[in-house]
Amino acid sequence: MALGSMTLNRALIIMGFVALAGFTQISQAQERPNQAFYDELKALMEAENHFVDRYDAEVWMKDMSGRLKRRAPHIPEEERLKILTLVHRYANASGVDPQLVLAIMEVESNFDRYALSVANARGLMQIMPFWKDEIGHPEDSLFDMETNVRYGCYILKLYLDMEKGNLTYALGRYNGSRGRAKYPNKVYAALRNRWAL
Length: 197
Prior knowledge:
The protein is mainly α and 197 residues long. It has helices at residues 6-21, 23-29, 35-46, 54-71, 77-94, 98-109, 131-135, 145-162, 167-175, 182-195.
């Protein structure tokens, strides 16, 4: 998502809230954010490549936090906010769409930070250990959320560059199934049904 489209996205979100039941009713029905929310919001605002203003950041965090809570209710709120902050920070730093990253996480690990595949891929974005030699350090833990999200976003950007922006092929490379439609279609469905603004 480009930062330039944030004003339109903000307006669409607000219109959606109003259309559903009126902004006042919606905000009263929502749980009041705790200090962890505001701590992550502050980190989001202070990081490079992030929102222009606090309002945009708060709207995005509340919206995505609600979506993530519905999709993965087992994740505690502080962890949910941490995931969202990391996704937004590293997706923007690498030039990929944060909502796309959330869709990939859903398909790859269902937001299980300790997920381990039969192929030995690890964490939220299912990173293979060989990447530590390519873009990181041997001592990096791929179960660490920040490390995992940072790797995943940069790997996705690398594949997008290799495929000259062709997202379907880049997603196929990410999953090790380039040329087959099954994995990209799962990511597109998750993006369309749950994460797209």
